[in-house]
User: What shape does this take?
Amino acid sequence: MEDKLLIWRFKYGSRDALCRIYEKYEDDMLTLAISLLNDVSTAEDVVHDVFVSFAESAEKLKLNGSLKGYLATCVANLARDKIRARRRQPAELDEAELVGSASNDPPQSIMCDEELQQLNYAMAQLSYTQREVIILHLRGGMTFKAIAKSQGTSINTIQSRYRYGLDKLRSLLDGEVKK
Amino acid sequence: MKPAEKIEKLIKRLHFKASAEMHDRTLNDAVEAQAKSKKTKPAKIEPSIWRTIIKSRMRKLVAAVVVIAVLIGIYQVGGARAAFGQVTQAVRTSLTRLKEFVIEIRTREAAPPPRLAPVRHAVPMIDTSKCGYGIQYDLFLVQGEQADLRNFFEKQDIKFTPTTNNTNICYAILDGDKAERFISFSQSSNEIKLLATPRLILRDGKEAMLGSADLAGSGGLAFAVAGTLVDDNEQIDLSFSFYNGETGIEIPSIRIKTAEVVLIRAVKTATATGDDGSNKENAKKENDIFILIRIKVLSPT
Assistant: This one.
């Protein structure tokens, strides 16, 4: 209910509603973006751009699902664009730091837990499509159906990506433990 | 091998916190972008709202009319403006969340006037010794023809301005005298019956959300109001959102003096159909409801 009211107020120009929405989902979206991109500064740019676009789109905004899901989809779409740009400019962005290895950057990360750092490193080894499904489902709170719809693909494909992604994560993390 | 559930749990634990710099930069840019894209929607004046309602009844054979009036007044307790200043200064630009304030209004044709369901709310009555300011709701049921009420509005030259996005909902700013007369009228008139005067606490905070939509059951009406209160040298900016779960109104900013009140009236029309599918014309007036809401600024001790 709160999100519905916030969205409704936001659509009618409420600054307070925008601030409330931003503060409510800022960290979630940042976590999502960092998990997808493995690059803190690019992730921050993505979250920034998503919220600025969101603020501009008040009058056109039509939400069918949840607000969090909508924002997560926006973050994922923009992150995908960044990944494509990264492929086009490999020299520039391939050097981006993995969050898992950026433990000397405490303001951004509260991943003090070694296990989480291992996980984050393993996540970086997954294909982007697998990582995206896993993150959108587990961190974005989106259903497989919603993810499939947002990506224009079948739900079976999404579920396969999720399953194979998790299997690969398990193998990778097992490898980490054995070391 | 780690079980999948453990990995899922681990991923759910992933959490990054935005830096203060990023927070400020993004928020400022977003607010600026919103301000740039915002278009001003001028309010249309609709002086004869009652006539419109009557037309609507006649033409469309409206069977039930629910009228909700929200009277929001801000005044001091104890009459000390200094105290008011202290309070509002303390809660400047404050919105505080109120939880689970649900009002259900049931309209039933050919039945006794609907009881405005006692307000269910989680917040206890105001303890004035502990809070900064509070909201008092005077909930009234309007019965009968409402001729006196219409006359009252005409005599007092109270004209309503439609809100920006819904012509069925309008508001009027009443000066202190008119506000007192309206309250006196509500006490003396047989057309208005006081049902409840619940109070809720507004503590220092950022947001006030009053109510939640709970439209369980047909004919139910629930609403939410969010309000902002800003004191500026005895001028007060109020902004309200009125939301019934599906639609609502937004009154972004009304500037009033401390003694003034804002009377907000929402008109909901519905057409009841008979067993044979025909419209019924006469199931209406007993179901009219007024809700008066006043914000009372309470002196902290």
Remarks:
- Chain A is about 75% helix and 0% strand.
- The longest helix of chain A spans residues 155-178.
